[in-house]
Design brief:
mainly beta, globular, 7 helices, twelve-stranded parallel β-sheet, disordered N terminus, disordered C terminus
Length: about 725
């Protein structure tokens, strides 16, 4: 069956990717392979054709001649619990005449796992809690029971203010880019956490704004008068206080407290007692732990494809029909402290730096791990795979990935983004040690390794149930890309935006008041976003769009996408939820024939005056919402023509054709596993109140209004289009 699917995909690629000559040889799926190797732990390895591990087969492939046909490494059925990350460097490359292909054997569904399946007898602790021995020397943030994500314990508590001081001396450590004084503790109600609770250093505190969350970690607990003082792990909690735009850790707002044993009271929650070497879990209805598959993740990254630089890329490797699952991540670590703090997106602060992150061109920001990561790579094919149950991102094409194809994959149940392309430091290439912005010596990549991602094809993929732990991360996030074709994908169930495009705001446009006057960033250009389907995006946060853009992106086309209802009763107010959000600095986008089915109180395409954007054209778009702005005025240079307002969702033939064509091709969709197709977003406890980012709100509703009221109002609004859409689309 796997071979039949691969053949169908190959035929499909011949017709749809003919403009990509780099793939012409690869598309000849039925050519005779030069070598066929087998990975099968159940057979006796011979060191030439049969291998007990993928690592062993990979080592042998390096010795083979790759100029006379493909080398196929067939991986037999089973769960391959990896001890270490599989690293593919330039010595593992194939050639245009002989690609190296790691494929699932016919009828097999091999799983490359970053976890360990635990077994033994669960002890009934009463009150619906069960426990089992587990030895591990670090915190556990994710657990998977029968393929479903379980969550750390959680409780919402109002912060009562800050306590203590922590001084940072500039350049005293590699993370101290500037100096300053911050707070090193937060006051909480005395009953927020038992002062003698287990493993206080494993407790996390999360605060939330409209589009973001910030996580810091506890160091110790003690009583201070009538309050509980939670001392925070430094320096990361200090780093989390340097954020601008209202995103810093909030001492006086609602905190989500994670990972306290005494808060274990909900089905689907777990607590790992590190000191006591025991795992506690509250089963969901129908779960029988005596025969459940319980997986504890250990690896952060399963596969890393990474060359040495621009002249030594990994190339001509394919991954086909494999499942990559069960990864771990314990947040960013700085000098022994942990946390995750960011102004926006999938990258977080890793240094104590100035509040103005534009001024240092995001050099204090870095992305976290993904289950599969590519860097310094070319002609890589990632086809027909599944990536799921991740501790952070799913698939990341981070730096200098070119002429690469991501096709017909299911990426779902990710803690962060399903797919990440580029890096926030890619606004300028080769700028380490330059005169561009502050702290250029701190740039992550030097000139020999830094490269924007170019000529990528992302087609017919399912991106679903994303950002389960990091709510402010878009389902698919593109920091910088040139020549990206993003077509016929489904993006479903995202806590924030579905697809985020671009970076740099107006601050990288080359104007006299930008960071680098006279030299606009040119790494985001000539991208096509077309024929995609967006379902149920922006379920938890707001100030977003199913498609969200920032920064100049000449040559970008957003065309013939279908956006099917966004926002939910759990969003941070209905304010600033859009079908397409054209945010600050967005320029040179052409959008046409998009069909946007959205609550009529929202903006279909927000072309409002958000600052130094414009020269964007929107023609012949359809929507159940009439408004094209949330600021009442349009950015100069915006052109809107032939706008179709269809309040009852009774689409004409042209709009219906867009809807029918949007998303994954039916033949490809049917190849995805039932788990991927039928999976639903598991319930998580939301923060019911939040502090709005006051400086950026125009006419916002009063902060902290009851969630119940928001939910009722949302349901009333939603009912207006639900009646109209019944039977009209599906």
């Amino acid at each position: 069956m796997k071979k039949a699917i691969a053949c169908l995909l190959s035929i499909w690629m011949i017709f749809t990717l003919s403009e990509f000559p780099v793939f012409a040889k690869e598309s000849q799926e039925m050519q005779t392979a030069a070598y066929i190797l087998t990975v099968d732990p159940n057979r006796v390895p011979d060191g030439k054709t049969v291998f007990s591990s993928i690592e062993a087969a990979k080592a042998y492939v390096r010795t083979l001649d790759k100029t006379h046909g493909d080398i196929i490494v067939e991986i037999m059925d089973g769960v391959y619990e990896l001890e270490n990350t599989l690293v593919f460097d330039e010595t593992d490359s194939g050639t245009p005449e002989g690609r190296v292909r790691y494929v699932a054997a016919e009828g097999a569904h091999p799983v490359l796992s970053g976890g360990r399946t635990i077994s033994g007898e669960w002890r009934d602790e009463g009150n619906g809690i069960f426990s089992i021995p587990l030895a591990r020397d670090k915190k556990l943030r994710t657990l998977y029971v029968n393929g479903t994500r379980a969550f750390m314990t959680s409780k919402v508590v109002k912060g009562k203010g800050s306590a203590g001081e922590y001084a940072v001396e500039e350049n005293a450590a590699d993370w101290a880019w500037t100096g300053g004084t911050v707070h090193d503790g937060v006051l909480l109600p005395r009953d927020a956490i038992p002062v003698d609770t287990r493993n206080p250093e494993d407790i996390e505190l999360m605060t939330q704004t409209r589009w973001n969350t910030t996580i810091v970690c506890v160091d110790s607990l003690k009583m201070r008068g009538f309050r509980l003082l939670a001392s925070l792990q430094m320096p990361y909690a200090g780093i989390a206080q340097t954020l601008g735009w209202g995103n810093a850790y909030q001492f006086k707002e609602n905190n989500m407290i994670y990972n306290v044993f005494e808060h274990l009271d909900e089905p689907g929650e777990f607590y790992f007692d590190k000191a006591g070497s025991r795992l506690y879990y509250c089963p969901r209805e129908g779960e029988d732990l005596s025969d459940a598959q319980v997986v504890v993740p250990t690896l952060e990254t399963l596969v890393r494809v990474e060359g040495k630089g621009l002249t030594a890329r990994v190339h001509d490797i394919s991954f086909e029909g494999l499942t990559f699952a069960f990864t771990d991540w314990n947040l960013h670590e700085v000098a022994g402290s942990h946390g995750r703090a960011t102004n926006q997106g999938a990258a977080a602060l890793t240094a104590f730096a100035e509040e103005d992150w534009h001024g240092y061109i995001y050099r204090a920001y870095d992305v976290g791990p993904a289950a599969v990561m590519l860097s310094s790579a070319a002609q890589i094919t990632f086809t027909g795979n599944s990536v799921c149950h991740t501790g952070n991102d799913g698939l990341s094409l981070v730096n200098d990935v070119t002429d690469t194809m991501v096709t017909a994959n299911a990426i779902y149940d990710t803690a962060g983004a399903a797919l990440l392309i580029g890096h926030p430091q890619h606004m300028y290439i080769g700028d380490k040690g330059s005169d561009k912005g502050r702290h250029s010596e701190k740039e992550k990549y030097d000139a020999s390794t830094e490269g924007a991602c170019k000529n990528l094809s992302v087609e017919n993929n399912l991106f679903k149930n994303t950002s389960r732990l990091f709510w402010g991360v878009a389902g698919v996030l593109v920091y910088a890309a040139e020549g990206l074709r993003f077509e016929h994908n489904n993006i479903e169930n995202t806590t924030y935006s579905g697809l985020s495009l671009g970076w740099g705001w107006w601050n990288m446009n080359g104007d006299s008041d930008s960071v680098v006057p006279g030299e606009p960033s040119s790494t985001m250009r000539d991208n096509i976003i077309r024929y995609n389907k967006f379902v149920n995006t922006i379920t938890t946060l707001s100030d977003a769009g199913a498609i969200y853009t920032i920064g100049d992106m000449p040559g970008t086309v957003i065309s013939e996408n279908f956006i099917d209802t966004i926002g939910s009763a759990f969003s941070n107010k209905a304010y600033h939820i859009r079908g397409i959000h054209i945010d600050e600095g967005t320029q040179h986008v052409y959008g046409e024939k998009n069909v946007i089915q959205i609550d009529p109180d929202y903006a279909c395409i927000d072309c409002g005056d958000w600052g130094k954007k414009g020269n964007n054209t929107w023609d012949n778009n359809y929507s159940t919402a009439q408004s094209y702005t949330t600021t009442e005025t349009y950015e100069p240079g915006t052109v809107i023509t032939n706008a179709h307002y269809v309040p009852d969702a009774k689409w004409d033939a042209a709009a219906q054709a867009v809807i029918d064509n949007a998303g994954i091709a039916p033949a490809v969709y049917e190849t995805f596993s039932e788990e991927a197709r039928e999976s639903e977003m598991s319930v998580m406890r939301a923060i019911p109140e939040y502090k709005p980012n006051i400086p950026l709100i125009v006419g916002a509703s009063i902060a902290g209004a009851a969630v119940l009221v928001s939910a009722v109002l949302f349901l009333i609004r939603r009912s207006r289009i639900n009646a109209a859409r019944a039977g009209s689309i599906r």
